[in-house]
Amino acid sequence: MPMMPVTDSMFLFIETREHPMHVGGLQLFTKPDGAGPDYLKSLRESLLENSGVRSLFRRRPARPVNTRGYLAWAEDSELDLDYHFRHSALPQPGRIRELLELTSRWHSTLLDRHRPLWEVHLVEGLNDGRFALYSKIHHALMDGVSALRQLQSTLSDDPLAMDGPPPWGSRGPAQPRRGRPDALALLRGAGSTAKQLAGVPRMTAKVATEAFREHTLTLPLQAPRTMFNVAIGGARRFAAQSWPLERVRKVATAAGVSRNDVVLAMCAGALRDYLIEQRALPDAPLTAMVPVSLRSRADAGEASGNQIGALLCNLGTDRSDPAERLAVISRSMADGKRLFKELTPLQILLLSALNIAPLGASPLPGYANHTRPPFNIVISNVPGPRKQMYWNGATLDGIYPASVLLDGQALNITLTNNGDNLDFGITGCRRSVPHLQRLLLHLDTALAELEYAAR
Amino acid sequence: MPMMPVTDSMFLFIETREHPMHVGGLQLFTKPDGAGPDYLKSLRESLLENSGVRSLFRRRPARPVNTRGYLAWAEDSELDLDYHFRHSALPQPGRIRELLELTSRWHSTLLDRHRPLWEVHLVEGLNDGRFALYSKIHHALMDGVSALRQLQSTLSDDPLAMDGPPPWGSRGPAQPRRGRPDALALLRGAGSTAKQLAGVPRMTAKVATEAFREHTLTLPLQAPRTMFNVAIGGARRFAAQSWPLERVRKVATAAGVSRNDVVLAMCAGALRDYLIEQRALPDAPLTAMVPVSLRSRADAGEASGNQIGALLCNLGTDRSDPAERLAVISRSMADGKRLFKELTPLQILLLSALNIAPLGASPLPGYANHTRPPFNIVISNVPGPRKQMYWNGATLDGIYPASVLLDGQALNITLTNNGDNLDFGITGCRRSVPHLQRLLLHLDTALAELEYAAR
Asked: What value, to the nearest 5°, has the Cα angle with vertex B193 and ends B189 and B199?
């Protein structure tokens, strides 16, 4: 029974009904030419027959009803694949809207701790004949970046390759996920489970405090209070859409800024319009926390390593002119002083939380005297496939990340590049962020405005 | 903010991920003659427009993340009907099997405590053109019998009546649910929330002990240990099927026993075959706990009152002869000595639990020295409509109850009469009760054997 590193088990400890700790991904596919009416049925059957299940996808908490049991993984000897891999359909009229509605529901429910912590949903019934996969995995097993990599590892740039493994499989022999940390935890933890358990609250406080140690005083804390920085419920809304990378690239070139600056300006414009619509735009500009991957290139091939940095970005939402907003954002991103160095995904999450009640850490050390949130929203740009990808002959049209929310951060925008597109996934608390899907319209408007300004 | 009686709030306290505390009902409908392709769409729209939401369906725990908040109900001022009433579809081939699979998943997930504690799912895509409704409501709001009554109250025996309210509505003016207990709790609790809260664990112990007081010594405790009497996980399987009441009636008349005796004999035969198949049939006969409603006739019209008695029934599963089993069951049911009088649904549940960890009552007082479960399974026969019923012109083909499970009771059979049929709903722990749906086949065989024996 391998011991769990504290950075993994913590995601089990801090999970509540209001804060499910899984990440998700929605993939949209066009069926291969000549796919018959039984295509999905036989696809499903062939995936179920595929016996290769990565060891990570066989792990469950050793004692699911006992916090002590969160410290070790057990192998599920009788994996019930039929439970984890589910077949679903969209109701009429089978638009993307119905797909997003279903994804929202799935992203809202807790994973069963008595089983390996993942689900994959195969979705039929899109009115344009396409199909979708929604995958969900617990943050204790994989962070969002690794989860997206895992999905990508099942794809191929060859439309004729028919050996694509299921989302829970892998092409090569199964790899240990996080070589060093796991081994380290094993050494540390093997003889001292009780000690490790006793250390959990202290360890968490440390994880949180370390993230703040150098920053408590220097953290600019200029972020205004917004409707997004509130306590949240358990229900989620998810929205997703793709935009051509070329449109973003042209704006970036014309304005002499980075593509990521343009993406942030799209988000800034959309957030401004949304908040105006909700009569909730604060006078001060919104601040985004923008995670920056610190993975080395050598890591890139595998879902491993978890060091992340983060920039605080002034989104310039107080400016009505899109070009001015873009300039503010670009300057803010170029100002490297506000860099958090080498955070773990756990620390990133803790940074975004107003309240981690299960740990008795409410408010967090660094927040004790803060009346305003350190930032208003997390906007992540996660690396995706650069080429057009395929999965057993089906064309990948989109791959949209669904994120974790915590009290204090009711909205998250995560995007990824996918061939010639940028795929945006927006996750929000269903109660705190009404009409979330309108952000898609506003993103579209924001890009058009930036193009107009840069013409 | 009305105070919650302890018997209600207890269902919030004892709920865990492994023990969701909601009851469910699956209704199967044939569309009215001449229903067009847009029938379900317009049905859904008309139900969403129906503004009448019973006050019960607007209640949520006052402070969902705080146990103190479980003691009072709050009214949800901005009920998000679109969240509670969901539209879903079956994947191909759209058989009853796919419907049961989907129902199983829905019955496994926790309700959102930030919202009124119910969901209704409208299901399209059955290959025979029918449609279904799955309704789910928290036990803190309504026990299973009341939930079934609420569903029935929306039906009519007139196929032409088109004024059927949605499952969350009512025909008449909204009624207070439990007149006396609520008022009593209000009086008791109004000035003493803290006192009531302090009393919760004591109160629970009392609720549990009272149920056992007279019975700890007399409880026969002849039930063997079986695969059903184990700790459970959170995932469920649900199976359902109808049998003609006339077939049961004929056997009862021929054998000179009650119809309920025949139903219990069907269950006994099915359980025996299932356990043989699983190589898990104990030598001693299984004992069923059979709840008996003690509602007065005056209560019958309304979803109110919760007094229930219970018989312990020897299921005779050690006998291979169906006629002998029926005789054993009939004698056992006629033996009134083992009657529990006036239990609440909470006590019934506590009786069936090996372990109520959140209350620190593990094992329960009465169980301290018991090495064997007091009974093996709960089999409930709940009153249903005697006539063929309709809902806005659609014919009700079946109404199948889905129950609550607790540690120690991994399987539950609840049935109801519905016009000319008996509708069985079987709820099981997905891990502990493999191939649950085979119990349907075995029930069918058991009835055929009883008919053969009674010919």
From this structure: 90
pLDDT score recorded for residue B4: 74
CB contact under 8 A, A114 and B83: no
Which among A371, A431, A442, A432 has a CA at the least distance from the CA of A223? Answer: A371
Integer Rg of chain B from CA:
21
Inter-CA distances, B284 with A322, B272, B280, B313, Å? 79, 11, 12, 13
What is the DSSP secondary-structure string of B310-340?
EEEEE--TT-S-HHHHHHHHHHHHH-GGGPE
Q: Is the ipTM of this complex over 0.85?
A: no
Domain coordinates in residue numbering, chain A: 6-153, 198-453
* Residue in chain A nearest B102 by alpha carbon: A88
- Quote the CA–CA distance of A151 and A401 in Å, as a whole number: 11
Rounded to an integer, what is the distance from CA A424 to the centroid of its chain? 11
Burial status of residue B295 (CB atoms within 10 A of its CB: 0-12, 13-18, 19 or more): middle
- The model carries a pTM of 0.85
CA-nearest of A225, A12, A208 to A110 is A12
Reading the block at residue B284, the tokens are: 């001693």
Sorting pLDDT into bands at 50, 70 and 90, what band is B281? Answer: very high
As given in the structure block, the two tokens for residue A265 are 């300006």
CATH of B6-153, one of 3.40.309.10, 3.20.20.80, 3.40.50.720, 3.30.559.10: 3.30.559.10
Backbone φ and ψ for A222, nearest 5 degrees, come out as -100, 5
Integer CA distances (angstroms), A394 to A33, A161, A307, A366, in order: 8, 10, 33, 48
| A89/B125 CB distance under 8 A | yes
> Across the interface, which of B89, B105, B431 has its CB nearest the CB of A91?
B89
Nearest to B428 by CA among B268, B238, B281: B238
Q: Is A138 in a helix, a strand, or coil?
A: strand
Residues A116 and A121: their CA atoms lie apart, in Å, by 15
Distance between CA atoms of B255 and B327, rounded to whole angstroms? 9
CB pair distance less than 8 Å for B431 and A18: no
- Residue-wise pLDDT tens digits, A146-159: 888 889 899 999 99
Q: Which CA distances in Å does A343 have to A141, A220, A291, A416, B299? A: 17, 18, 9, 20, 62
Residues of A in contact with B18 (CB under 8 A): 64-65, 114
Of A83, A102, A234, the CB nearest to B112: A234
What pLDDT sits at residue A180? 34
Token pair recorded at residue A199: 């250390």
Q: How far apart are CA A268 and CA A433, in angstroms?
A: 16
Tell me whether the CATH fold assigned to A6-153 matches the one assigned to A198-453. yes
CB contact under 8 A, B112 and A113: no
Q: What is the dihedral of CA A78, A182, A147, A267, to 10 degrees?
A: 150
Give the residue from B39, B66, B109, B134 with the most A CB atoms within 10 Å of its CB, the best one to mutate: B109
Residue A263 CA to residue A296 CA, distance in Å, equals 24
pLDDT tens, residue by residue, A250-293: 999 999 999 999 999 999 999 999 999 999 999 999 999 888 76
| Interchain pair A109, B110: CB under 8 A | yes
Count of A-B CB contacts under 8 Å: 89
Contact B113 A234 (CB under 8 A): yes
Q: Is the peptide bond before A363 cis (omega within 30 degrees of 0)?
A: yes
B305 min Cα distance to partner chain A (Å): 31
Q: From CA A282, how far away is CA A277, in angstroms rounded?
A: 12
Minimal Cα–Cα distance from A152 to chain B, Å?
A: 26
Best CA proximity match to A215, nearest among A347, A317, A314: A347
* CA–CA min distance A183, chain B (Å): 30
CATH number of A198-453: 3.30.559.30
